[in-house]
Write a structure and sequence with these properties.
With 168 residues, the chain is mostly helical. It has helices at 2-74, 83-86, 102-124, 129-136, 140-163. The protein has two domains: 1-75; 83-163, no CATH class.
């Protein structure tokens, strides 16, 4: 009878060992799955962190570019003073004195007078380039160009008159 109890004890012990081995195996599988999931999650977090850094860098570049564009728009090319008085010319105006016949020059002068007469009149009234620009809404450089054209047409007309080719 002792051998039956011994056999029964060994069977119970073997069954308990098998049950514990099965539980350990299940826990091991769960642990391996958990480790794999944790590793996958860590890789995804790293990828997301890299993407966030890339987006932050591109946003910073875009902000710097926008800031540079805003700064470039706010920079005045001229000093805000009448450049005729200071002796500087921002835009070179070609001389029209030697160009074409008297009829062509007269037609060009008439067209320029029609288009820019207001600006010429303000200049003749003694207004500065900055004042003319603020009143007409034209940029300072454009005002300088228009007044330079006026000076060129005037000098062309004077040159023709002195040579005796002026139109009646």
């Amino acid at each position: 009878m002792a051998s039956i109890w011994l056999t029964a004890g060994i069977i119970v012990l073997a069954a308990a060992t098998l049950a514990l081995a099965w539980v350990a195996l299940r826990l091991s599988n769960r642990n391996a799955s958990a480790n794999a999931a944790a590793e996958l999650l860590a890789r995804r977090v790293d990828a997301l962190s890299l993407r966030v850094r890339q987006l932050e860098t591109s946003r910073e570049r875009a902000e710097a570019s926008a800031k540079a564009k805003r700064a470039a728009r706010n920079v005045r090319v001229d000093s805000g003073r009448n450049t005729q008085e200071s002796g500087r010319t921002l835009i070179a105006v070609p001389s029209l004195a030697s160009r074409g016949s008297g009829e062509i020059a007269a037609a060009a002068a008439e067209e320029l007078s029609r288009r820019f007469g207001t600006i010429w009149n303000l200049s003749q009234a003694g207004r500065s380039i900055a004042e003319i620009a603020s009143e007409t809404g034209h940029p300072v450089g454009e005002i300088e160009l228009i007044l330079g054209l006026k000076r060129s047409t005037d000098s062309a007309h004077l040159a023709e008159t002195s040579q005796g080719r002026a139109q009646p």
